[in-house]
Amino acid sequence: MQMMALTCPHCAAPLDLPARLHRARCDYCGCQLLLSEGDFVEQRAEQAPPAPVDDRVRSELDQLDREWQAYRRTYLPRDSNGEYFVPDPEQFLHLAWGTGAFSVILVIGLLVMGMPTGAIVTAGLSAAIIFGVNRQRHVGQVYQRSLANYQNERLKLMQAAES
Ligand SMILES: [Zn+2]
């Protein structure tokens, strides 16, 4: 999935949004966001602005956001439009299975036709493709786990600040 790294204009939380999205909701402050050409054009806050947080919490949040943004930048390189690709683990799992099934049929067919060299080449190529697909899948899994951890940490800080 093509994603964009943006910052909420309302609460300054770093957001991950699908690149072709036009309307979004900030996970952290709940405000409605309108997007155009990768930029926020309008912001409509449905809820009251986030409760003012004290300086200590603010700096902890800033620190956490900075760390997350640095991680995201190194883990998923962005193009010049600020878009990056987040591999969907499910999709890549299907792709690996599909490639495997297809190549088994092809290899059997080549063997039946008396083309063992072709069968070996096909098997080798399929293994390389499946290896690559699994790597992408792993990248997606690690990213999703890291994102969940970061969001948890951030919510915990926000909740601690409110109580
Ligand atoms: Zn927000």
Number of strands: 6
- Quickly give the structural class: alpha+beta
Distance between the termini: 37 Å
Q: Helical region count?
A: 3
Overall outline = elongated
SSE ordering: EEEEEHEHH
Q: Please list the strands of the largest sheet in the order they lie side by side.
A: 2-1-6
- Please give the share of residues in helix: 55-70%
Taking Cα atoms only, what radius of gyration do you get, to the nearest Å?
A: 22 Å
Beta-strand percentage range: 15-25%
Query: Largest beta sheet, briefly?
Result: 3 strands, antiparallel
List each distinct ligand once: zinc ion
Give average pLDDT, whole number. Answer: 84
Low-confidence stretches: none
Verbal overview:
- There is one protein chain.
- By secondary structure, the protein is of the alpha+beta class.
- The protein has a domain at 2-86.
- The chain is 56% helix and 17% strand.
- It is built from 3 helices and 6 strands; from the N terminus they run E-E-E-E-E-H-E-H-H.
- It has helices at 55-75, 89-112, 116-162; strands at 2-7, 14-18, 23-25, 32-36, 39-44, 83-85.
- The strands form 2 sheets. A 3-stranded antiparallel sheet has the order 2-1-6, with helices on one face.
- Helix 1 (55-75) packs antiparallel against helix 3 and helix 2 (89-112) packs antiparallel against helix 3.
- It is elongated.
- The mean pLDDT is 84.
- Bound molecules: zinc ion (ZN).
- Residues 8, 10-11, 13, 26, 28-29, 31 line the site of zinc ion.
